Amino acid sequence: MTGAALATTVAAQTTAVSQATPVVAQVTAVEASLLAFVVLTALATALARDVLAAIIVFGAYSLGMAALYAFYRAPDVALTEAAISAGVTTVLLLLTLAKTTRIDHDVAFESVNVPAAGAVGILLVGLLFTMGDVPAVGSPVAPVWSNPDVTQWYLGESYAQTGVDNTVMAVLAAFRGFDTFGEAVVVFAAGVAALIVLHREVFA
């Protein structure tokens, strides 16, 4: 089946499904556990006074985010989060800490900034009000599937336009080329910073 035929078939199926009752998102036990873990580790990272403890908890937070991305069926983002944030960033922070002075603290956590906590609470409540409009994970009526003018065009034309079999990679490397180039610049800057911290001229 050609890309155009595949896009037409998927679009027809999506149109038929979209006429049915929309599937409302429901928080499963796994999703709730991951969300609670991410929130708790984020709070612990922000409030921890000891730098080493903050780095370790931040690594756990990154792994939780990677698991959450994988649960939401975004394996490419999950792999990036696990490799860069939980892996490389944690190592760089530990190396930086080893090259600097670690300050001992008598108190484990910082005191809570009440105005900032109130602002975060208001934002959280506002976000929770939007949860009713979020489709379930994998729902065929989600906007990413029910917009044949965009997503189905990518599915049908990515290979013809770029010659890349993987549609996700085609979008990242070609259609989002400027954005991906910006991400590459960030990674390059991080590599230069790592070399400066390690007092090295090249990676070896």
Fold and architecture overview:
By secondary structure, this protein is an all-alpha fold. Helix content is 71%, strand content 0%. The chain is built from nine helices and no strands. It has helices spanning 3-18, 29-47, 51-71, 75-99, 114-129, 143-146, 151-162, 167-175, 177-198. The radius of gyration is 22 Å and the shape is flat.
Which parts are unreliable, with pLDDT below 50 for 5 consecutive residues or more? 16-20
SS class: mainly alpha
The average pLDDT score comes to 79
Count of β-strands: 0
- Please report which band the strand proportion falls in: under 5%, 5-15%, 15-25%, 25-35%, 35-45% or over 45%: under 5%
Counting DSSP H or I runs of 4 or more residues, the number of helices is 9
What gross morphology would you assign? Answer: flat
